[in-house]
Amino acid sequence: MNQAIRNAWIAVAAMFALILGSISYVQVIGADALTGNPWNNRAILQTFCQDRGAILVAGEPIAQSVPSGSDACEFQRTYPTDPALYAGLTGYYSNVFGSTGLENSMNQTLTGQADQLLMDRIRQLVLGQQPKGASVELTIDPAVQALAYSLIPDGQRGSIVVTNPRTGQIIAMASKPSYDPNKVATHSQDAAQKAMAGLQAVPGINLNQGVSGPTGALLAPGSVFKLVDTAAALASGKYDARSVLPNPAQMTLPGTSAKLPNYAGGNCYTRNEADFSFALEQSCNTPFASIALDLGQEAIAKQAAAFGFGQEAGDQLHLDYSPGVFPEDLDRAQLAQSAIGQFDVKASPLQIALMTSAIANGGVQMKPSLVKRVTAPDLRVVDEPKPEVLRTSTTPEIARQISEWMANVVSRGIGSGAAVPGVEVAGKTGTAELGDTGLNNSWFTGFAPADDPQVQVTVVMEGVDVKTGAALTSPSAAKIFEAVLKK
């Protein structure tokens, strides 16, 4: 009998310890992760009907809470200003599907629960006022955002990122296909579910656009990755501006019978040897594959990491971020393909923007920043992020040399579509083939003015032919350069 009682007590004690441990995990250890999970709408249901802080661009709300006129739920979250234009930034706030984008990452601030808003919460409680969150103003320029969005044709998958390379501030970040978050934020669960079903049926749509491109997937960067090879080559000490690079029309990939050809759309075929400037101007493949085979995987991977591949983007972005990928354990054939941004090399538009901005900023990569300031309900500024260094990607000397060669890409190479009258533009194009489809991801990345960079632009269009890509990338960048520099 005593043994049975002891066994029962042991079982009860074990169950009690298990329950206590589970409660402790949910309330303490895993609380932040569970609260931040976009599919967890319990926290949303607690505050869904409150007066949530606004998300602002140039002082105008792109997300706000307004009186609903309903006793059941006093406030309705709305996206009043071009909702599809900003959906990739705001995300949505839904009592059915949780929250995404800034609505998710800035939730504590928007609901007034952030630590710096403690006194505001106490004041509201003492005075019996309706709880109200803080407003978040973004670094986005509305005119540049609208221009970038308009430069992506309807029905085309594409992304454009515009930044200030000196501060890291994001001037514009636009993607298509987009959506209207108002349809998901409705109080009607049936209407929200119907709207979500319709949105999920849109080919290529990503309802948490963030910074990984419109489809949410990392993309092969193609020849824009040659900037990594160039920096690695110069950093090695084995190459300099006078180096002569082998430039055969094609090369046999080591250990295979497969051929790696030069870009057929340029003038690579006119020379069997090339310097760095010509190889970048015409986007020749074989010189950079040769560099990678000479330096080895470790050197290319180290330089890619220095530009941010495989690394985090810092704490000022406030959006989901997928760092670029440079693959491991490559054989020599795979390394040659990776050197031209193919095989399993992947990157988001923001990743390429960070790489390019580091070159523009003398080798220093700044933290990408999306929040300009946070303002309490009494209009007191409680946070105003300052520019912060994220990492050093290369030396000032190497950055300056690459900038000079990138300027040649636009002034006399295949990036001429990005030229702006009276301004020296630095750039690099990229074409990443999509298997045997005949289609590719077309890239342009660059900055201006080349000798005094004030704006960086990265453009990618997915699943286009070469002619279409050339018409949509470099010329679009030129329009954005011109618009920003005119201000």
From TrEMBL:
Residues 158-485 form the Penicillin-binding protein transpeptidase domain. InterPro entries: Beta-lactam/transpept (IPR050515), Beta-lactam/transpept-like (IPR012338), PBPA_dimer (IPR054120), PCN-bd_Tpept (IPR001460). SUPFAM superfamilies: beta-lactamase/transpeptidase-like. Coiled coil: none annotated. Residues 52-136 form the Penicillin binding protein A dimerisation domain. PANTHER family: PENICILLIN-BINDING PROTEIN 4B, PEPTIDOGLYCAN D,D-TRANSPEPTIDASE. This is Penicillin-binding protein 2.
